Amino acid sequence: MYTSLTIAGSDSSGGAGIQADIKTMTLNHVFAMSVITALTSQNTMGVTGILNVPKEFVEKQLDAVFCDIVPDSIKIGMVSNSEIIEAIATKLKQYKAKNIVVDPVMIATSGSNLLEEDSIKTLREKLFPLAKLITPNIFEAEVLSKIKINDKKTMLIAGEKISKEYNCAVLVKGGHSINDADDLLYCGGKHYWFYGKRIENKNTHGTGCTLSSAIAANLAKGFNLVTSIKRAKKYIEGALSYNLDLGQGAGPMNHAFDVKEKWKKESKQCY
């Protein structure tokens, strides 16, 4: 069975972070493992607290995984301070990790900051060069490229700059702020557009985590980067289209949307 590892923070509401990653990887038919970098107290309305895991314990988790079940791919999400970032980078190089997807989580869907300011430099210097792909949203791509993005032309300019600077592929996620969920992949001097349909759903908590985890899961199964992104976008569109409505803020998606018929049958039996 193919395996994938998520290195990220825990989301107590279950819609993003480690919880979303494990659901996504499982529903994309790979065995999911986890290294937790932080505990968060959060729900659909925002983040009320962050407790970072000591870097020594992050290292122990990584050793435990790589010394037993070597992952076929890795997704890196919330890594909120420089010490943890450096520890992860050192271990990934030590174990010659492959198929690394970095989602540079800087801000939550609710608007809460998840990355300390001085950690952005460490993230760029230590983790990005190890990545096969990084997946910034528009805000994150603007921070990384220092380019204001307001249309597809500036998306392309920013994507090219980021890719060349860190020598890795970059997927700039357009989302509804620029277009109808059209994303741009810049890789090896070439660019590819992935077109998505606009889904009217305010419940988008964990979309970034879910997309990057789905890409990692498909890379683990041996699909190339372009195919992995296509398959991941199809999965996230299904999860959004289910229109799950939980919580008082930006709610989560239904990661298990494709088993809904079974759920409906069981629900009828229960009530």
TrEMBL record:
Pathway: Cofactor biosynthesis; thiamine diphosphate biosynthesis; 4-amino-2-methyl-5-diphosphomethylpyrimidine from 5-amino-1-(5-phospho-D-ribosyl)imidazole: step 2/3; Cofactor biosynthesis; thiamine diphosphate biosynthesis; 4-amino-2-methyl-5-diphosphomethylpyrimidine from 5-amino-1-(5-phospho-D-ribosyl)imidazole: step 3/3. GO terms for molecular function: kinase activity. It catalyses: 4-amino-2-methyl-5-(phosphooxymethyl)pyrimidine + ATP = 4-amino-2-methyl-5-(diphosphooxymethyl)pyrimidine + ADP; 4-amino-5-hydroxymethyl-2-methylpyrimidine + ATP = 4-amino-2-methyl-5-(phosphooxymethyl)pyrimidine + ADP + H(+). Its EC number is 2.7.1.49, 2.7.4.7. Residues 11-254 form the Pyridoxamine kinase/Phosphomethylpyrimidine kinase domain. Keywords: Kinase, Thiamine biosynthesis, Transferase. It comes from the Bacteria. CDD domains: HMPP_kinase. It holds the Pfam family Phos_pyr_kin. The keyword Kinase applies. Belongs to the ThiD family. PANTHER family: HYDROXYMETHYLPYRIMIDINE_PHOSPHOMETHYLPYRIMIDINE KINASE THI20-RELATED, PHOSPHOMETHYLPYRIMIDINE KINASE. This is Hydroxymethylpyrimidine/phosphomethylpyrimidine kinase. The lineage of its organism: Bacteria, Bacillati, Bacillota, Bacilli, Bacillales.
